[in-house]
Structure formats: C-alpha cells, structure tokens
Amino acid sequence: MKTALSGRRVGAAFPAVLVLVGFALLFGSCGGGKSADAKKRLFIYNWTYYTPDSVIEKFEKEYDVEVVYDSFPSNEEMFAKLKAGGSDYDIVFPSGDYVSIMVKEGMLAPIDRTKLKNFGNVDPAVLARCDFDPGNVYSVPYYMGAAGVAVNKAKVPTFEKSWSIFGRKDLAGKMTMLDDMREVMGDALAYKGKSVNATGDADLALAREVIEREWVPNLLKFDAEAFAKGFAAGEFWVVQGYAESIYAEIDPAKRGDVEFFIPKEGGPMYIDSMVVLKGSKRQDLAHAFIDFIHRPEMYAEFVDAFGFPATCNVPARALKKGPEWYPAAALEPCELKGDLGPALEKYNAIWQEIRVGK
Amino acid sequence: MSAKRNYGSLYAAPQGLWLLLFFAAPLVIIVAYSFMEKGLYGGVEPRLSLDAYRALANPSLLLVAFRTLLVSLVATVLTLIVALPCGYSIARSGNQSLRLFLVIVPFWTNFLVRIYAWIAILGNEGFLNDALRALGVVADPVQFLYNQWAVVLVLVYMYLPYAILPLFSTIDKFDFTLLEAARDLGATKLEALRLVLLPNIKGGLVTAILFTFIPIFGAYAVPLLVGGKDSYMLGNIIADQVTKTRNWPLAAAISMTVTVLTGLAALVFLFRSRKPAPQSVEEPAAPLGVAGTSAVPSGGAR
C-alpha cells in the first residue's frame, strides 16, 4: 500500500501537518518553567482546588515562602504518583482510608504536636472518628464531609431527603450518580441499613439489586466529571455529588433553586487529612502550614470559600460568615469509608457489571 | 567514488532513539506488567502471574469489547462517508491550501474544550434545542446527549480530519481524465466514481480507515463525557482499572490484547490491500465473489 501522505504529491497536505505538529510542540512545551529566585518553597499535593488561594497567599506572605500547589483528582492517582517516586512533596491531603494505607506503607512522618499550637481547635468528635490513624499520630484532619444530593427545585418541587429519590420513575433520564464505586455501593448499603464498609456477600448482593433494579433505570449516566456543569445548565435535575463542585458552577442568582442534602439514611463519609511525607526536607515549614490552616480565622476563610460547615475546627464556627450547603449535623448518620483491603475485589466485580450494563 | 562516509544512520538516530524511549520502552513495561501480580494498593508485585489474562474471559469485559467494536465500526464508516466528498471537493477546488487549512483549524482548540462545545450545542438547554424550539419543531427538548449516538457523532467530528487528509492526498493524485473516459465508455456518473475512482484511491482509504478506526477503538474522553450509562468502552475500562480499581495488570493485559489484535488486523488489512494493482488495465477482472474488499479492479470490465 502507498500511505497516502508519503506519496509524491504531498505538497499541499504537508504544510497542514507541519502546522499541526508545530502547535503540538508549542503547547506541549508550555508550563513547567521554574522561577529562579531562591525563596524557600513548600510543596503541597492536594485535591483540585481544595485550599483557597487567599489562604495560601496569606501563608506565603507571613512566612515569606512560595507554596507550590499540585493537585490530584483521586486518592488512587495521588498514591500511584507518590509510589512512583521522584516527587518532592511535603504535605499531602489523603482521605482516611489512604492515610491508613500510607501509614502501613511507611510513607509518613509522625506529626510533632509541640509544633502545632492550634491542634486544640480540632473538634474532638472528629478526632474520635479517625480510626484510620488512632491517636492521630500521622495525620491532622482537614475536612470532614460527604457527597450528597443536589436537587433543582424549579423542576422538582417536592422530594424526600432520602436515597429513594433515585428510584423515582417520574425523574427518569434527569438524574446522575457519581461514577465512583465506593460512593454508589456505599449509598445503596446505607439505604438498606448496612455498613458502607460491608463485605458480606449477602449485603453486597442486596446493594447491587438496589442499584441495578431501582436506580440505574432512572439514571441518565454515572458521572464524576461534569455533573455540576450539567446540573447548573439545567440538564440534570437531581445529581449525586460534592457540594463544592455544585457551588462552583451555580449562578449565584439561581442558588435559591438549589437544595443540597445528605440523605437521612446517611452514606459514605470522608475525613481528608493533612499528612507530612517521610521524605519531606521541610518538616518545620510543613508543620507551620498545618498549624496555619487550623487558625480559626483561616479555617473559617477556607470553609466559607466552598460553602462548607466548619466540621473540623470548633472556634471557626463562630467566625465563619457564609452560608452552608449542608449543616454539620447532617453528617451524623454517615459512616467513614474504610480501606477494604482484599475485599475490594468483590466491589470491583459487582461495579464493573453495573457499569457495563446490558 | 571516494570513500565518503555515510552519515545516514546517524541522521536517523534521533528518530530511533525517540521510538525506543517513548514507544518501545513503554510497550515493554506494559507487557511486563500484564504478566505480573497486582499490588494490593495499585502497582504490581514482581511475581509472574497469568491472572490478568485469565480475567479477560469475563463476560462483561467481552460485552464491552463487542460494544466498542460496534461503535468504532459505525463511527469509522460514517467518518469515511463524510470525508470522501470532502477530500474530493478539496482536491478538485482551486484553493486547496485554504480548504486544508480550514480542516486543520479545529486542532487549535483543545480536544476537551471541543467536547464541551458539543455538550453546549446538543444539551437540553443547548443551541440546537433552543433553535428547534424557536422554530416550533419541538415543544419539549430532544435528548441528544448521553447516549451512543452522541458518542458516535462526536467521534466522527473528532477524527474527520484524520480521514480527510489522506483521502485528499490520494484523490489529488488521481487522473481525473479517467472519469471522463469512463463516462465516454458508457458509465453513469456514479458508476464512474464507484468503478474507477474508488479502486484508484484505495491507498488513501486504507490509511483513512486505520487513522480513524484505531484511535476510535481506544476512545476514552468522548464516551466519558457525552456517553450515557450504556456507553462504557474499552478505553474507560482500562482507565478505571488503573485509577479506580487498582488492577494495573488487568489494564495492561487489556491494552496488550487490544494492541496485538489491532496490530494484526492492520497488518492483514495492509497486506490484502497491497496485492491488486488497480491501475493496470491488462489485469483480468477479479471474480465478483471477493466482495467486501472493494478491490475489484474493473478498469475495462464494462
């Protein structure tokens, strides 16, 4: 065969290809430039936009340092990158199950409480739930929250604050749930009164039946990427997702039309924590940052930026001004997602069949 | 001739090095991973295991493979149907450079942005539905997005340039007086295109098919963003095995299987399409039994 582009008369196509390659190179090589000044730097590896710029800027000013904020979209990706090595991060923000995994793998440095003046601000009730790191030897809670359900009240005026909303046939084709195995399986387990960390075959079969029979027929799709955009555009009327994602997309004038709730049956919850990596060369600065976050006014500024309740920091509750998407009390029936260990395989197998469909 | 040193291999070295570093080495890693045990928390354990290949026999995996094949076939055929007249009109037009330039222009916009643009067009509150409602064609919005057809449409849009460019470049080389000759000999316009043009641009067609089918087969972002709950494709399964379910060996094994199968298919495809020499008029007309190859060299058959 003659490949079409290798022919003799490539004259006209060739410049086009060149333009293409040129642009690829141009945009591919952008970024990654490093400033040459010798300012001290702190490397943070955190969820995508999870600490407001304003808080980071204040820290930078006060400590005369530069904070480098890299982000990850999932615990799995964060873990894989750290395991691959070569990164030089000081502070990471894993969820609870990954804190325990990272402790087991010997990746973390113990927290030096003497360097944390503000540790006393952390809610003891939250600390008591940190069974992924008993005694908080390696981690300091950053935020405790849960995914919930956002409803467009203009389209859906009456509803029950329950997972049963996804079983409503009149809303079929207008609803999405997260493309996240632990979340959706956990929701179904909680809906049936089981633990979100259940590993028994009967419990998992029950959860699967709820998802496949009651929920999936009414879902437009499983979406963890664009649900908030679609919700803000009026495309989806009921979405399961994170309050902060929805908060970021909704036009402030239309906030009155949105209700966000944590279903009364509870569901999987997370505590994202701050941990210091064993290899960190800036342990003092890392501790200073963690302490800075738990200053009441800083914590208030953080939660206000996202419409969060101040779940982890007690004095911040009096200082915060903004509205909350859900009250901290709504988290009470929720349960922390634990590391399932080898039982994860069972979840994988069920979830794959749910996702593939028929 | 004096003993002039041949620097050819030296000049070619960067390309070889590039391929070794960014193609061969990663491929070796994927092969190696596919034969290892999975790590409990992602990654692999350095122990030999065939578990990943055994897991391939899973019926839901086969269902996804079949669905992916179907979507890829439909999308490739539709791409060709659109690309052929485009390539033809560019080749016959007076301002080829401008038209080719226009084919390339969409590449200036990021791939993901273009997918979101389609979401803005096709959404229930999107431009298309707004227009349809304004014209009174429909009362309630039509659900264009989040199904298999949305996936096919956006895939066709994305890979169209990869089909137009090779088709244009072969059609451009085609001697159009042959079409006139065919008409003189009694062929209708359509017959002339089908029996004279098509066999002569087979090289371009093959390239266009390979350049569209193979990347579409590995599509990931398009089904993720515009697909519905039934649009899970192989690319998504592979990504999920790495980023969610912590089964790297399985991801590697699926990738390897897909690579080997598409590689073999491409080789067979290329090999078969090389055999007949469509230009030679002396060659006897092939028996019409070999359907499906469109390789019937029927220059003088009529």
Percent range for β-strand residues of chain B: under 5%
Helix-and-strand structural type of chain B? mainly alpha
Strand order of the largest sheet of chain B: 1-2
Note the run of SSEs of chain B as H and E: HEEHHHHHHHHHHHH
What coarse outline of chain A follows from CA principal-axis ratios?
Answer: globular
By DSSP (H or I, 4+ residues per run), the number of helices of chain A equals 13
Q: Please count the beta strands of chain B (DSSP E, at least 2 residues each).
A: 2
Helix content of chain A: 25-40%
The fold-level CATH name of the largest domain in chain B is MetI-like fold
Number of domains of chain B: 2
Can you give the mean pLDDT of chain B?
Answer: 88
CATH superfamily of the largest domain in chain A: Periplasmic binding protein-like II
Write down the overall mean pLDDT of chain A: 89
What is the annotated CATH architecture of the largest domain in chain A?
3-Layer(aba) Sandwich
